[in-house]
Amino acid sequence: MSPSALNWDVLDIVLSFGNPYDALQFSMTCRDGHNLAMSHFLEEVEFPLPWLCLQGAKRSSLACPELFKGFRAYMLDSPHASHRLRKLKALTLGKEAFCVKWGGCHGGTGTEQPTYNFTLAGPLADVIRGAVELRKISIDYTETILDDVPQLVDAIASLPCLQEVCFYRADESTLGLLSNMQSRPRKVKFCIIKHNDQETDERWWGDYASGDDRFLSNFTETLEVLSLNGGLEEEEEELLGWAGIMGKTWQEKICKNLQVMYLVLQPSYIVRKA
Predict the structure, then answer these.
(1) In whole angstroms, what is the distance from residue 146 CA to residue 124 CA?
(2) CATH entry, 1-42, from 1.10.3720.10, 3.40.50.920, 3.40.50.360, 1.20.1280.50
(3) 182: which DSSP letter?
(4) Fewer CB near the terminus (10 Å): N or C of the chain?
(5) How far apart are CA 47 and CA 23, in angstroms?
(6) Would you kindly state where each structural domain of the chain is located, as residue ranges?
């Protein structure tokens, strides 16, 4: 029996149990299928697109300008732009979202490092700014992306409805973003960078100034789950370090709504030449 013979309400329920790629495939069957399925596809968008990594995929999952420009065009250059933007609920920019050349782990030499082009994230700024019903955002290489595409800072900060934020490999620019967000998320995961110079073996942290307007002080009324990854070497110094970053306001209100707090001592590392 053809899927189109089923009641559209039934098909909508069926699609809710599938993954975004299933919804995308169904959207290509006919006009009605497109109208029904694309909302399911847009609910959770992830880069790199997972199905490009599947065996037999015809396209490479390597990042390219056309991929992100095409996504921006689909979301914005249409009479249905406002509808599509409202459907976007979760956005993930994974570890390899902006990888333009695989390293040794993908068949290259053992010492070959992957190459990234984080400026490819530029077209996403307008999409994020317009996705006013976005509930979750997860970004790897956050600090580098925000430094290379600063317009993303204002775009993310302007979102009103975020409930969960995950920022990996973050540093000073990310702290500034968190301190200026309009959203009041319930869940925050923050993995901070520890800088390392391979030639001198020198290691250091960013310049985190304390104060009432710093990290997470604007979330004290809503935050329920907090995961902090990275800090100082010793646990006692770790707690003091985070307390200094958070500021007095946070320390006074930390237990108001917080239900779960994870503190992980292993930081993310980034290599930076002196």
Answers:
(1) 12
(2) 1.20.1280.50
(3) S
(4) N
(5) 16
(6) 1-42, 48-271
Tokens 């707690």: give the residue. Answer: 239
| Closest residue by Cα to residue 230 from 176, 146, 167, 274 | 167
Q: Which CATH architecture has domain 48-271?
A: Alpha-Beta Horseshoe (3.80)
The C-alpha R_g of the chain, in whole angstroms, comes to 21
Cβ-contact 47, 97 below 8 angstroms: yes
Q: What is the pLDDT of residues 88-128, one digit of tens each?
A: 999 999 999 999 888 765 555 556 788 999 999 999 999 99
- How far is residue 91 from each of residues 97, 136, 156, measured CA to CA in Å? 12, 6, 11
Of the listed ranges 62-76, 108-122, 135-149, the least confidently predicted one is 108-122
Tokens of 49: 């697109």
